Amino acid sequence: MDFTLAHMWSQMGIVAKMVVIILGIMSVVTLGISIERFIAYTKAATQSKAFAQAVQDQLAKGLFKEAAEQASCFAGSHIAPVVKAGLTEFLAAQALSKGNYDVHGAVKGAIERASARQLSMLRRGLSALATVGSTAPFVGLFGTTFGIINSFQGMAKEGGGGLGAVAAGIAEALVTTAVGIGVAIVAVLLYNYFTSRVETLEVDTHESAGEIIALLAKEQAKDAAKAA
C-alpha cells in the first residue's frame, strides 16, 4: 500500500478533497490572524511603554493639552487613545465647569468608551481562532465519513471483502481527521496564548484609565479650591 500524500490525494473522493482544501484555508486564516495579532500586541505594548515615558512629566506638570497631542503620535498604543479621550474631554469640559456640568462624569464616560473601543480592537480576530479550534476536528471527521463511505462503495463494486480490501481506503480517509485535529490544536493553543496577552493589556488599560481619572479629579479639585 502506498501512503504517500500524492497517492492518498488521488484516492480521495471529491468531498474529502474539498474538506482538505477547507482545512487548508482554515490553516492559512489561523496563520494570518496569528501573525497580525502578534505584531499588533507587540506594537501596543512597546508604544504604550514609550507613551507613558513621554507624557509622564507633562501630566505631572498639568500640561494636559500637550499630553493629548503627544498621544496622537502613538497610534499603535492601546493606552494612548484612552488617555487622550480623558484629557480631551477634561479640557473641553473646563469651559463649562462653572455651571452644573459634571466634569468628572464626562471624563469618566469618555475614558470608559475609549477603553471599550480599545479592548474590542484587541480582541479582534480571536473569535475566528476559537471558531477554527472548535470546528476543525468536525470538518475533518466529515471528510473521513465520506472517505469511509467511498471505500465501502469501492469494495462493493469489486465484490471483495475483508479488512484488507478497505484498509488502504480507511487509512486515506482518516487523513482528514488527522489534519482537522492538527489544525484545531494549533488554533486553540494560539487562541489561549493571545487571550492571555489581551488580558494583560486589558489590565494595563484599566489601570491607566483609573490613574487618569484620579489625576483629573485632583486637578478639578484644585481648580475648585482656587475658584473658592
Features:
7 helices, rod-shaped, mainly alpha
Helix content: over 70%
What's the helix count?
Answer: 7
Structural class designation: mainly alpha
The share of residues in extended strands comes to under 5%
Low-confidence stretches: none
What is the subunit organization of this protein? single chain
Distance between the termini: 93 Å
Shape: rod-shaped
SSE pattern = HHHHHHH
The overall pLDDT average reads 83
Count of extended strands: 0
Tell me about the largest β-sheet: none
Summarize the structure.
The protein has 7 helices and no strands. By secondary structure, the protein is mainly alpha-helical. The chain has one domain.
Secondary structure elements and their pairing?
Elements: H1 5-11, H2 14-60, H3 64-71, H4 80-93, H5 103-122, H6 126-158, H7 163-227
Helix pairs in contact: 2-3, 2-6, 2-7, 3-4, 4-5, 4-7, 5-7, 6-7
Describe this structure in words.
The protein has 228 residues and is mainly alpha-helical. The protein has one domain. Helix content is 85%, strand content 0%. It contains seven helices and no strands. The chain has helices at 5-11, 14-60, 64-71, 80-93, 103-122, 126-158, 163-227. Helix 4 packs antiparallel against helix 5. The mean pLDDT is 83.
